[in-house]
Structure formats: C-alpha cells, structure tokens
Amino acid sequence: MALPILSARLEQKFSGIFRLTIQHARNLGVFVTIYKTLMYIQKSVHGGREERLDSFFAGLVGGCYIFGNDSAVVQQVPSRSCRYSW
Questions:
Q1: Rounded to whole angstroms, how far apart are CA atoms 24 and 77?
Q2: What is the dihedral of CA 33, 39, 42, 48, to 10 degrees?
Q3: CB < 8 Å & 24+ apart, contacts of 29-36
Q4: 23-32 — which CB contacts under 8 Å span 24+ positions?
Q5: 11-47 confidence digits (pLDDT tens)
Q6: Domain around 29
C-alpha cells in the first residue's frame, strides 16, 4: 500500500527538479544570447576591438533582464552567491 504513495512522491520530486532545470537552462540561454549580442554590437561600433567596460555593460543588461524575472531559481542565486562570497 505504501509503494504507490512513495512512487507518487518520487515522481513529484523528479517533476519539480526537471521543471527547475528547464527554467535554469532557459534563463542561462537568454543571458548568453543577450550578452553575446551586446558584445558583438559594441565590438562592431568600436571598430572591431573591445573596450574596457563592454563586458560589464553586456553582463549588467543581461543580468538585469534575467534577475528582473521573479522565479524560484532566480531567487536562490543572490542568497547563494552572498553565502559563498563571505
């Protein structure tokens, strides 16, 4: 009798993990697309060379876009990065 209950819980756990993995992959893909596109545009504007703050600006825009979305994956990143940086 307990086996179907256990498998249902396990299925829910795997479903949640899979859903969050998809969301993380999508966020990462969007960030990389924004970052690379902005780096390419800035490099084209500056005559084929990268300037000092180009990567900072591209990362800032991509990060603001991703972190502006409210999700469980996004909410974990600042808390974990603060925890590991101290």
A1: 11
A2: -130
A3: 30/62, 30/65, 30/66, 31/62, 31/63, 31/65, 31/66, 32/62, 34/58, 34/61, 34/62, 34/65, 35/59, 35/62
A4: 23/71, 23/72, 23/73, 24/73, 27/66, 27/69, 27/71, 27/73, 27/74, 30/62, 30/65, 30/66, 31/62, 31/63, 31/65, 31/66, 32/62
A5: 888 888 899 899 889 999 999 999 999 999 999 998 9
A6: 2-85
pTM: 0.69
Q: Structurally, how many domains does the chain consist of? A: 1
> What integer pLDDT is reported at residue 40 of this predicted model?
95
Cα(53)–Cα(63) distance, integer angstroms: 15
Distance CA 7, CA 79 (A): 32
